[in-house]
Structures are given as C-alpha cells and as structure tokens.
Amino acid sequence: MKAAASVGVILLAAALVGGGYWAGQRGVPPGATAVPTKGRPAPTAAASPILYYRDPDGRPVYSASPRATGDGKPFVAVREGEDVGFDPSTGEPVAARSAAAPAVSSNPSGDRILYYRNPMGLPDTSPVPKKDSMGMDYIPVREGEDEGGAVTVSQGKRQRSGVRTERLGRRTLSAPLRASGSIQLDERRVSVVSVRSQSFVQKVEAVTTGEAVRKGQVLMQVYSPEVAAAAAQFLSVVGQPSGAGRAVVDGARRRLENLDVPAAVIDAIATSGKVPATIGWPAPRDGLILLRNAIEGMQAMPGDEMFRLADVSVVWALLDVAERDLSMVAVGQPVTVRPRGADRGITGRVALIYPSVNRETRTARVRVELPNPDRLLLPDMYVEAEIAIGAGGPVLAAPDSAILDSGDRQVALVETGEGRFEPRPVKLGLRSEGFVEIRAGLTEGETVVVGANFLIDAESNLKAALSGLTPPDPSTSTETRK
Predict the structure, then answer these.
(1) Structural domains of the chain, count
(2) pLDDT tens-digit profile of 60-116?
(3) Structural domain boundaries enclosing 455
(4) What is the pLDDT of residues 468-477, one digit of tens each?
(5) How buried is residue 452: exposed, middle or buried, by Cβ count under 10 Å (0-12/13-18/19+)?
(6) Fewest Cβ atoms nearer than 10 Å: which of 102, 218, 286, 337?
(7) Last residue of some domain: 303, 329, 354?
(8) Are residues 67 and 206 in the same domain?
(9) Does residue 87 form part of some domain?
(10) Would the pTM of this model clear 0.70, i.e. be above it?
C-alpha cells in the first residue's frame, strides 16, 4: 500500500509540473487550470501575451522562451500587465502578481514601458526586467519620460533625496567689486605761477613747499622793466575824456592785463597815480604749494615756473579694474575708498572709465572723484576700493544652489508640476549674498530646485543619453507609417 501511495504522489507532481509548462505555452496564467470554473471562462490563446519567463524560486533569472530549472521546475510565464512595476507614491519596485492575485495595474498612468535602464547609470538597457550584478532592479522608462531630459520624481523618492524648491522673485543685488589704485590730484585744480616778461625776484614771502595758501595771498615781489613801462603809459592816459581818449585808456589797461598784472594792482596804480617799484604776485587759488622755484634775486624769463599750487579739497582715485570685470562698472556707481591704516572709508562715485587697457596687466583705469576736506587723502597714496556694482534696481534672482554650472553651461531645474522637473539652460549676471541674477531662461514665479538638484540633473542627463541608445519602435518608424 505504501509503495502504491508513493507512486501516486509522484504521478500527481509530474502532472502538476507538466500542466504548468503546458499552461505557460498556451497562454494560461500561472496557478490557473485549463478546466473552466464556475462564473469564469477558461483562458485561451487569445489572452494577454507572454512577455517572458522568470525563475519559479524568485531568483534574478529570466528567459525569453520556456525553460526549466536544474531540478526540473518550469519557469513561470509573466504576461503583459504582470511584469515588475514601480509604486508611483513611493518609487519602490512592486513584485509581479500572479494570475490568482487581484488585477491591479502596475502602470496606472497607462503609459507603455519602453525599456529598462541600469539603476547605477551605466549605459545598459534591457527590453525586459532584470537585475544588475548587485541585485538591484532595472528601472522602467515609460513613454513620455525620455523626451527632453525631463524627470519625474515620486513623492517618496523626493523626500528621501532631500529635494527642495523655491519660487523665483525679484530682489536688489549689490555686490562689491574690489580694486586697488592710488590717489592723484584733480588736473583741473592745479595752477602754475609764472611771469610773462623778463623779471627779477626782489623778495620771496615766507612760504615753502607743502604749505597751504589762500587765493590772493602774495607769494613774491617782482620787478619787471616791461611792466613798469606799461604802467607809466597807463598813468599818462588815465583820466582821458570819453570817445577816442577812452579807447586809449582801455588799450593801456589791456596791455598790463596781457602781462598778467593782477587787476587789484592795476586799480591801485590808477588810484595812487604812481608806478610801484615791485609788484606783489598773488596766489591764483586756495591750495597747497607743490613746487617752489622762486629764489630771491633770481632773474625770471617769460614762462618760467615760479610756483605750482594744487587744490586738494577734491582728489581722484585712479583704480585698476580687471578687464573681465569692466562690463559690470558704470559711470555714477558709488565707490568706497579706504587708505591703508585708515579706520574709515571715503565715499565717491565713478566719474570716468578710461578708453584703454594696459597691455601688460590687462586692466583698465577707472577714475573716482572723492571729497577730501580733511586732507586725509594725499597724492600717490595707495588705496583699496569697493565698487558697488549692480545696485540699479530689483532683478530676477535665484539662489546660488539652484544653478548647476559646468563652466561653459549653466542649467536650472524647473518644476513643471506633478513631480516633473525640466532642465533649463540659463544666462547669469551679478552674484551677491548667495543669489545670482537670471538674465535669460527663467521667468518670475517659476519654481526651481535648490536642494539635491545634482541628483535630478544626473537622472535627466542619463535619460537623454539612454534615449539615443534605445532602438526606435518599429511600429512608429517611417516605413511602417508609409
């Protein structure tokens, strides 16, 4: 009896195995029988087609045709709609269902799976589900997901990856551009004291180089034979009646003026009726004496420079700005200049950008006008400056972390809705305080990724690359359409 029972069990097992192989060949789902059940018709060959066959023990072994394991177990047939899918809420793989399980679609959106790609980013695709050498499932790529580099990220994967977004807005950006330079005199505030006729310096007043003088202050006493002759002629015609006589008086006075005799001295000659032996030569402006060449008893020829004065109440800062930064500098921008060792800065504005670039240093000269009432800034003093660039008004700006910069290409990831992210090339401008100006590529109100965007960018680049490796669908080819 025991032997007969054993033989019966063996025959039953063989029938089940053979029946499973036969069912897989003829379109019967695994676990179903060929005998019709009540209320349910028997599967036929017209049922959903078989995609592939998988190992009955769950090992990562697949086959495109029926086969059996080493111990005689037939591979399980997997039909369309029963293959491995991914949960759209979590992004986790969902195991293939059996025919007896409820008919839950692994592709709720209805998009057809085009192929499966390597989960580690390797350039390897598969038309059927498979695992890599580490046991990780290949990721399905559906229709519409491999176009334009757009990426769809599930909510669960988004939370695990730390994806953060931010809405674009406008803000005022002001970043200091640092430059160095030196203090120079304002060329318009420098004067030279000289004589226009052969003269002799009778006396030099007690003024020396570096001292401050006031406008009209006498610097030296000068005797000039030519000036004395012109003064005598002027006296001889002073008091002439109007008409022709008045023209003679005006001509005599004009001669003294041409010899650079001060107007106050001419008026004193007319009032006193005497020609002075020497003339006091006054300072033409307030300022510092930069040069003193006048020496008592010397003879001065026309044009000789006796004194040089400069008004230092306003000075220039000549800054050297790198050639690459010139586009950010404009006339009128505020500048803070700070001498070495000074505890405070002096504020001025860009007055001129010189129209040339130094061939050796590749820098351009920028002139800044600075008030100097306390005479803190001295000629040839070295200074450091900060030019406030980009302070014109609010501009469209994004956080620095939103930009993926490869050096020759800048990209931002824009959220387009329903978990989709689109890479968008952008043009950048000024950077300041963790933000960067967006000059092209984005619009106000759009949402960009500011955290974990490099992961989405890698996914986007991978999809774009794999789409070129995937063979076209024959059903959509040109020949088929024709």
Answers:
(1) 4
(2) 787 888 989 888 889 888 887 665 554 544 444 454 444 333 333 344 444 678 778
(3) 156-172+394-469
(4) 555 444 444 4
(5) middle
(6) 102
(7) 303
(8) no
(9) no
(10) no
Greatest extent of the chain over all pairs of C-alpha atoms, in Å: 168
What's the count of helices (H) and strands (E) in the chain, helices before strands? Answer: 7, 32
Residues 285 and 341 in one domain: no
Say whether both 341 and 287 belong to one domain.
no
Q: Name the amino acid, one letter, at 91.
A: G
- The per-residue pLDDT for 198 is 93
Who contacts 149 (Cβ-Cβ below 8 Å, separation ≥6)? 422, 423, 460, 461, 463, 464
> Tokens 């909510």 appear where?
155
Q: Compute the distance between CA of residue 339 and CA of residue 384 in angstroms, rounded to an integer.
A: 6
Predicted local distance difference test score (pLDDT) of residue 240: 64
Pair (216, 274) in one structural domain: yes
At 460 the pLDDT is: 62
137 occurs within a structural domain = no
> Where is 250: in which H helix or E strand?
helix 244-258
Direct distance between the N- and C-terminal alpha carbons of the chain, in angstroms, rounded to an integer: 71
Please check whether residues 34 and 61 belong to one and the same domain. Answer: yes
Residues 97, 116 contacting (CB under 8 angstroms): no
Domain boundary among 50, 79, 108: 79
CA distances from 13 to 22, 125, 157, 328, 419 (A): 14, 38, 45, 84, 50
Question: Rg of the chain over CA atoms, in angstroms?
Answer: 47
* Token digits of residue 8: 């019966």
Beta pairing partners, 466? none
Residue 189 CB contacts under 8 Å (≥ 6 apart), including other chains: 285, 287, 310, 311, 312, 313, 314
Pick the residue with more confidence: 401 or 89? 401
Using alpha carbons, list the distances in angstroms from residue 95 to 125, 331, 391, 469. 20, 68, 58, 27
Q: State pLDDT tens for residues 293-341.
A: 999 999 999 999 999 999 999 999 999 999 988 988 999 989 999 998 7
CB neighbourhood size of 391 (10 A): 14
For 435, counting Cβ atoms within 10 Å of its Cβ (0-12 exposed, 13-18 middle, 19+ buried), the class is middle
| Cα three-residue angle 443-447-451, rounded to 5 degrees | 130
Q: What is the mean pLDDT of residues 13-41?
A: 41
Whole-angstrom Cα distance, residue 276 to residue 198? 17
Structural domain contains residue 85: no
The vertex-327 CA angle with 323 and 331, nearest 5°, equals 110
Same structural domain, 382 and 400? no
Q: Say whether both 320 and 273 belong to one domain.
A: no
